[in-house]
Specification:
The chain is an alpha+beta fold. About 35% of the residues lie in helices and about 20% in strands. The longest helix is centred in the middle third of the chain and has 42 residues. It starts with 15 loop residues before the first strand and ends in a 16-residue tail after the last helix.
Length: about 425
């Protein structure tokens, strides 16, 4: 198998080709895998266990913290990892995502599907090699070298034999700085997104249960609700999974698969299809419907959407969607916000039926889900407030997307030498 990525790309003649393993510093621990840690050894404190979910695209995700004890560390003869180590995830998705280990304020190890890479600083700069391994052209090659029937992974041997073409250390330094500045900009936007989403969750909890400016409340089986509200459920306010809409076979409609809705419950794409191509064996919906993923893990991950802008106002999609068609006594947006609330998702997860891997939220759960129902004029005010937050999130997501697109274009130019950076000074060896 040809493992040379140069076959599809051209590079400046002065750039040199290396196998990834030959860029390591040559010590026994400079290109090695983490440790196999079974669940009985995992604890809530001790030595940090870095897992595949902590490896982001060029940055470390400090979440889902797991640990092992000092005793387990000695018993299992684990390899310690250190600040500045490069961690390469051999498991999808995507294969090959790479980051530098930050200071976790504790000792740490990593899992077996992560390769620990300690580069030779005379050949390569750590921040440059991280950018190169996260380059989509390199990612594509790593995917081609991977295997696995259920979940793809690349072996450490194939990873080590991957050929990379790199410039001088001077040029590496400036390329890494240019691309790193864009990474920093993306991280700032992601922080703002996280803060705004936190604000939105708090607002939803307050507005969907206590409303706006109420001073008088009454008891209900939902708890205290405003005196002017009623208790209802989604099934009383909407039709769940309505029937198919009849059209001419040659009419164009939208098709929406599970990948076309985001985990923050937005419609991100649709596809033009003829009515007769999709009218059988798929779920039908129309503009203003709310769709909701019902299968695990899509439901727990937040997939769904408020549908607008369909071709001819009609769409078909995955059979793993529930469809909610809201009636006259509630606003579609008001019901939509309930379906994306933390409480709805947690209760839906607890009420799933079916075997592992095929568990689904039943129709009855959605129909019977109770909500406090304000008058329509208050629903409009609630929807307007939450809509303002959604607009802010949309602006931030657009900025993030544009920055990532700019970086992708620059990576293509800088990491293949199509655009050369000016280098006038020596770069110190760290």
């Amino acid at each position: 198998m040809n493992r040379n990525i140069k076959s599809s790309l051209s590079y400046p003649q002065a750039w040199k080709s290396y196998k990834l393993k030959d860029l390591a510093n040559g010590t026994s621990s400079s290109f090695t895998d983490g440790d196999w840690i079974e669940s009985p050894y995992i604890t809530d404190n001790g030595i940090r266990l870095v897992q595949t979910g902590n490896i982001g695209d060029g940055h470390f995700k400090n979440k889902n913290k797991k640990f092992i004890s000092d005793e387990s560390f000695r018993l299992l003869k684990c390899k310690e990892i250190f600040v500045g180590d490069i961690l390469i995830c051999r498991l999808a998705d995507p294969i090959g995502r790479t980051c530098i280990l930050p200071d976790l304020k504790s000792r740490a190890i990593t899992s077996v599907d992560i390769t620990i890479f300690r580069p030779d600083s005379k050949k390569v700069i750590d921040k440059f090699i991280v950018q190169l391994l996260n380059f989509y052209q390199v990612r594509k090659r790593l995917t081609e070298l991977s295997g696995g029937s259920t979940r793809q992974r690349i072996s450490r041997s194939n990873l080590g034999n991957l050929e990379l073409v790199i410039p001088s250390r001077k040029e590496q330094f400036f390329i890494a700085n240019i691309l790193g500045a864009l990474d920093e900009k993306v991280l700032v936007i992601e922080t703002l997104l996280e803060q705004t989403n936190f604000l939105k969750k708090g607002l939803m909890q307050q507005l969907l249960t206590k409303g706006i400016g109420h001073t008088k409340f009454k008891s209900s089986h939902l708890g205290e609700i405003p005196e002017s509200w009623e208790v209802s459920n989604i099934g009383e306010l909407a039709t769940l999974n309505p029937g198919k809409i009849v059209m001419d076979n040659s009419d164009d409609v939208s098709f929406i698969g599970m990948t076309d809705v985001s985990e923050d419950a937005k419609l991100i794409s649709d596809h033009r299809r003829k009515y007769n191509e999709v009218s059988k064996g798929f779920t039908c919906f129309k503009d203003d419907d709310v769709i909701l993923a019902k299968i695990t893990p899509c439901f727990e991950n937040g997939k769904g959407a408020l549908i607008e802008g369909l071709i001819n106002g009609v769409g078909f999609g995955s059979t793993e969607f529930h469809v909610i068609r809201v009636g006259d006594n509630a606003l579609k947006e008001f019901i939509y916000y309930h379906t994306i609330s933390t409480e709805f998702r947690l209760k839906g997860e607890r009420n799933m039926t079916g075997s592992a891997g095929q568990r689904r939220v039943p129709r009855q759960f959605v129909e019977n889900y109770p909500i406090g129902l304000p008058p329509l004029h208050e629903q409009r005010k609630i929807v307007e407030i939450l809509g303002t937050v959604d607009k802010k999130l949309a602006i931030l997501n657009e900025k993030k997307g544009k920055t990532e697109l700019l970086k992708r274009g620059l990576m293509q130019q800088l990491l293949t030498g199509k655009i050369r950076v000016k280098v006038d000074e020596e770069v110190p060896i760290s």
